[in-house]
């Protein structure tokens, strides 16, 4: 699954971006980021674990790079809520492709997009009222 170009631009614009490295050898374009977020790991046989604080390192139309203080098993999934340029929020689900220990307390995680759940902000708004006709 991939984010639409429009949604990718909205999320990337809403987050603080930095320039990519000339050494970057990824298959698709990514936006380098430095922003804190919370992810909700979804463990097998469980509806989800406690939210985990992470740093979002980069984002592409089909993946995300994170650093965290805890490892996430390869193949596990997590959800993350990200802002859009319009000030709305969207929940995305990712599957962990790799998790590498960078130091005793830092793990580098790469994940691929599984699903866009829904626009949280729009979903929480009340439905517009339809005009009621007056009976004569």
Automatic annotation (TrEMBL):
Transmembrane segments: none annotated. GO terms for molecular function: cyclic-di-GMP binding. It holds the Pfam family PilZ. InterPro entries: PilZ_domain. Residues 35-106 form the PilZ domain. Signal peptide: none annotated. This is PilZ domain-containing protein.
């Amino acid at each position: 699954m991939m984010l639409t170009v429009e949604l990718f631009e909205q999320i990337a614009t809403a987050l603080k971006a930095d320039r990519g490295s000339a050494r970057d050898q990824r298959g698709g374009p990514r936006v380098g980021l430095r922003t804190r977020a919370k992810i909700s790991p979804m463990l097998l046989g469980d509806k989800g674990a406690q939210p985990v604080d992470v740093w979002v390192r980069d984002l592409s139309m089909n993946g995300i790079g994170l650093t965290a203080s805890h490892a996430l098993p390869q193949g596990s999934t997590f959800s993350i809520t990200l802002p859009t340029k319009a000030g709305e929020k969207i929940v995305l689900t990712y599957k962990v492709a790799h998790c590498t220990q960078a130091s005793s307390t830092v793990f580098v995680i790469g994940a691929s997009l599984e699903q866009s759940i829904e626009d949280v902000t729009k979903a929480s708004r009340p439905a517009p009222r339809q005009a009621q006709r007056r009976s004569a």
